[in-house]
Structures are given as C-alpha cells and as structure tokens.
Design goal:
The chain crosses the membrane at residues 6-29, 36-57, 77-97. By secondary structure, the protein is mainly alpha-helical. The protein has helices spanning 2-29, 34-54, 64-73, 77-117. It starts with a helix and ends in a 14-residue tail after the last helix.
C-alpha cells in the first residue's frame, strides 16, 4: 500500500510540474505575466533536479517528500529552499489558472447566484402566512 501511495504522489508531482511548465510557456507566448512565466519555466526545470539531488542521501525506508519535510524541521537550508521553490511554482500555477479560467468561473458563479435569488423560495418579499 505504501508503494502505491508514493507512486500516486510522484505522478501528481510530475503532472503539477508539467502543467506549470506548459502554462508558463503559454503565458510567455501570449506576452502576459512575463517575469512570472520566465521564472516558472526555469524553476519547473530546476526544482525537481535540485530536489532529486537532495533526496539521494535519504534513508531507504523514508519517502522523498517525508525526508524533505523532516529536513525542513531540522532547519536544513537547502530543504527549506526546495520547499520555497515548490511553493512559488504552486503560486504561479494558481495565478495562471485564475487568469485563464477565473473569469469564466466567476461569470458562472454570479449567474448561479442570480438564479437562486430569483427563486420564490429564496425571496424576502413573500408573506409569512405561506409557511
């Protein structure tokens, strides 16, 4: 079971890095968020390599993610930088996704709220005897 969990975690990590890399390239081609796009392209390549080189020395019974977090708790500067790099990639992924799909989602959300408000069960102008 532990092997399956670590495989799924590694798969999610690879998808996260790949999506961040692809969105950074797309936003670079669109000439939007240029500094974030360049930094994300560089860090999407560098952060997995640095993390891989860092976890080479881990104990055999521990996963790489747990080793990095244990080293952060032990105040290892390189592990802290690796976590910060990944947090930056997570931030830029959220920024790119908000910019690309955020407007569509907010328009759907407001349409749903207006639809709920116009229902007779949610209006405030009804008579109290109808309860």
């Amino acid at each position: 079971m532990m092997h399956l969990f670590s495989t799924a975690l590694v798969l999610m990590y690879v998808i996260f890095i790949a999506v961040t890399f692809l969105l950074a390239i797309i936003y670079n081609c669109r000439d939007q968020w240029i500094p974030f796009a360049y930094a994300s392209i560089i860090l999407a390549i560098a952060s997995p390599l640095v993390a891989f080189l860092f976890i080479i020395g881990k104990p055999t019974k521990m996963s790489g993610f747990m080793y990095i977090f244990e080293q952060v708790l032990d105040a290892n500067l390189i592990a802290f930088i690796i976590v910060l790099l990944h947090l930056y990639l997570l931030f830029t992924l959220g920024l790119f996704l908000k910019d690309s799909v955020g407007k569509k989602l907010s328009s759907y959300f407001y349409a749903l709220i207006n639809k709920i408000r116009t229902r007779k069960y949610f209006r405030n102008d009804r008579n109290k005897e109808n309860f």
